[in-house]
Write a structure and sequence with these properties.
The chain is mainly alpha-helical and about 300 residues long. It folds into two domains: about 140 residues, no CATH class; about 140 residues, no CATH class. The chain is built from eight helices and four strands, in the order E-E-H-H-H-H-E-H-H-H-H-E. It has a two-stranded antiparallel sheet with strand order 1-2. Strands 3-4 form a two-stranded antiparallel ribbon. A hairpin with a 5-residue loop joins strand 1 and strand 2. Helix 4 runs antiparallel to helix 5 and helix 6 runs antiparallel to helix 7. The longest helix has 29 residues. The N and C termini lie close together (about 10 Å).
């Protein structure tokens, strides 16, 4: 037996299983991740162009028509385009679940993750319809985005776990490093939640007839920045720590810091320039990529246990 830098005993031999994901499972998992990220971009486009009620009905676009009619404007095409992505997104969620279920004897973790993703994708489709019926209720729109963000994290976690051996896992970083990592995750979660409230109080309501009130958008933007800068500082600490001790999460901490810096720069730009729609949309997508990188960095705190 040997020991890691944290004092955890490990074996020197092969992992617990020689499981290799099929080509179809890999493709389906990556497609699911990409589509869940893409639908955040298209959902942002719907909101930022005022196309939230471009298709005034659901599941049909307009009464008696599944697709936009000649009477509807370009807003209908934007809203319908966002809805269209829901189809393949659901298909790949089902395909990933079926393929994972076939290997559940070896990879129960993958089948559980795939089942959760499928359930949330189905929930999102229903919530999207309710949002239209309730004329872009701000709370439901915020919930819709947060669930989409969670789906990006879950599909990223699926890909990360798919490429590792199954079975028990052991911590391979010092305990204080793991604690700081989880505190960083909390800071990022607060940043996202306050950011959702900030956007909900801003001018981009999703339709020209919808008005938001009750929260000072300028105040919220300042509050939004506090946990954001905290997460940045903690990420820098983690990166330096990982470089000095050559810790396993290092590559993903580099990616996380890079995306986080760009995210903050875009956030500062949009706040100082009157929230231009394109910048707000980029900010939304970068939030999902930041969350995905943070998810994988957390997963890299452990590795599969090896056995004799």
């Amino acid at each position: 037996m040997s020991r890691t830098s944290t004092g955890t005993a490990t074996a020197k031999s092969t992992p617990t299983s020689s499981f290799v994901p099929s080509r179809w499972l890999r493709f389906s998992a990556w497609a699911s991740f990409v589509l869940n990220t893409l639908i955040i971009a298209t959902g942002g486009a719907v909101r930022l162009t005022g196309s939230g009620l471009g298709c005034p009905d659901w599941p049909l676009c307009a009464p008696g028509s599944l697709v936009p009619t000649d009477e509807l404007s370009y807003h209908s095409l934007i809203e319908f385009g966002n809805r269209t992505i829901s189809g393949p997104l659901l298909v790949f969620a089902i395909l990933t679940l079926v393929l994972s279920w076939k290997v559940r004897g070896q990879r129960r973790d993958l089948s559980v993750l795939a089942l959760i993703v499928f359930g949330l994708v189905a929930l999102q489709a229903f919530v999207g319809g309710v949002i239209v019926w309730m004329h872009l209720n701000a709370n439901l729109v915020a919930f819709h985005y947060v669930v989409s963000l969670g789906l990006v994290c879950l599909t990223a976690a699926f890909i990360a776990r798919m490429n590792e051996a199954p079975g028990a896992r052991e911590r391979v970083v010092p305990k204080p490093f793991a604690i700081v990592t989880h505190v960083t995750t909390l800071a990022m979660a607060l940043t996202v939640l306050v950011g959702v409230l900030t956007t909900a109080s801003g001018p981009h309501s999703g339709d020209s007839t919808i008005q938001r009130d009750g929260i000072d958008a300028v105040l919220m933007s300042h509050i939004h920045s506090w946990p954001g800068y905290t997460a940045l500082a903690l990420t820098v600490v983690l990166l330096v720590w990982a470089v000095v001790q050559k810790l396993r999460p290092l590559p993903w901490l580099v990616a996380l810091l890079a995306v986080l810096v760009v995210q903050i720069l875009v956030g500062v730009y949009q706040a100082r320039n009157g929230l231009p729609p394109l910048a707000v949309g980029v900010h939304m997508v970068l939030a999902s990529l930041t969350a995905a990188a943070m998810t994988i960095a957390v997963l890299r705190l452990k590795r599969p246990v090896a056995q004799d």
